[in-house]
Design brief:
By secondary structure, this protein is mainly alpha-helical. About 70% of the residues lie in helices and about 5% in strands. It has a three-stranded antiparallel beta sheet. α2 crosses α3, α4 runs antiparallel to α6 and α6 packs across α7.
Length: about 160
């Protein structure tokens, strides 16, 4: 699933392994199970840790570093939604606002094809409103309680 969502294949495989196994594994175990290089394992583990999908774990008497995946599927979805929002929705919203600022009231007054600019601005405003709605929905999904996500899933399940 991860690779179809734009996540590197190895990163998705490492996460899947840690999630399915359900217990902490060290880098050597991950490399052996997935037949991947140390560099690939390290990069994937760093990315997964940066996202918050895995955490470091230590075993008493063992100097190796172990990693365990978040096991609550609702929390996993919230984490992924939060990161996708931060990496995809937030920059799009910022870019749309920058475009809109370029054709704001002062710029429109100086342009001779004002009706075209106003129509352009209307389309931009509608797009900004739509992305804000998606952003607001995403915010409900990533709330610490997860109530927004559970409510949305429940409502969508009833609508189908």
């Amino acid at each position: 699933m991860g690779s179809s969502w734009g996540i590197p294949r190895t990163m998705a495989e490492v996460h899947a392994l840690l999630y399915i196994v359900g217990e902490p594994l060290n880098t050597d175990q991950i490399m052996a199970r997935l037949s991947i290089s140390r560099g690939s394992a390290s990069m994937s583990l760093k990315s997964l840790h940066d996202w918050g999908l895995i955490a470091r774990a230590h075993r008493r008497g063992d100097r190796k570093e172990y990693f365990r995946a978040e096991q609550d599927v609702w929390q996993v979805f919230r984490i992924i939604t939060r990161e996708r929002k931060r990496r995809e929705i937030d920059p799009v919203l910022m870019a749309l606002h920058e475009c809109r600022d370029l054709t704001g009231p002062r710029a429109t007054a100086a342009m001779r094809h004002r009706s075209e600019i106003e129509a352009h601005n209307l389309r931009l405003d509608e797009m900004i409103e739509f992305i804000r709605l998606i952003d607001s929905l995403a915010e409900q999904f990533v709330s610490p309680s997860g109530k927004g996500l559970r409510l949305a899933v429940g409502l969508l399940g009833k609508a189908v």
